[in-house]
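anyone seen this seq b4? input:
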Amino acid sequence: MPSALPARRRFNLAWLGLLPFFLFSVAFMFLPALYLVVGSFRNGDGDLTLENYSDLQTGTIPGAFLTTIEVSLVTAVAGGVFGLLLAYSVILGGLPRFLRTALMTFSGVASNFAGVPLALAFIFTLGQLSFVTVLLKDLGINIYQGGFRLTSKLGVELVYLYFQFPLMVLIIAPALEGLRRDWREAAENMGASTYQYWRHVALPILTPSILGTMILLFGNAFGAQATAFQLTGGTLNLVPIIIGAQIRGDVLHNPGLGYAMAMGMVAIMALAIGLYSLLQRRAERWLRS
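predicted toks r here
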């Protein structure tokens, strides 16, 4: 008997649900990325050139990259440590459960509270004539007399911490919850103290997650632009601010150079994401066990 013809494959209508996602990705991710790459190799006349990349080594651009990396590292480490301590306190510290709920709710809101609203909030709170500054001055504490400026690099780092440590809390909480009770019980049965348990068992397990989350915090601060611009008026030498000035500025108008600087940021972010993926794979081994 002749073999039966294979059944014709029917189109899965579920793919239509992904169509908006694909269209959105092409329109707002792939096409802008392609435009960025092409634009970084063109000069003001539209001719191909490598001058934009050679100019990355001139002027204030190297200093801008160093300052941006420094701000990102400081806020990533400080926000990571503070967020880790907060998450440990409410998850493993034996505090009331309602504090954990309150902290997680606050972290979910604060981690997304950035940009112009966050900058204005700190200006109204810690500006030279703000409520808190005047209140502290009445108590004999003048924070601006010691050289503090909200528009300085230290001021920007302080503002960035507001959305950095809540993000650390949200991401590190599942890793802390993944520490199994029988691991601690086994360590105690072997005669280990609390310090020895954390030194030889818990911290080695948590280290990939902690470092990976700090890398995410680094990337989160590295690409921030609206908060710093609104806070400093564009006076702080940060890469995102200079890119904005090069692309839409009247004085520093060189879109090709701005696109080349953006490609430099893409390279640094790609390295950070690669390190995060590597650390995350190591952390998932313990979370799955």
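The chain has a mean pLDDT of 87. The domain at 47-288 is CATH 1.10.3720.10 (MetI-like fold). kinda curious what u guys think
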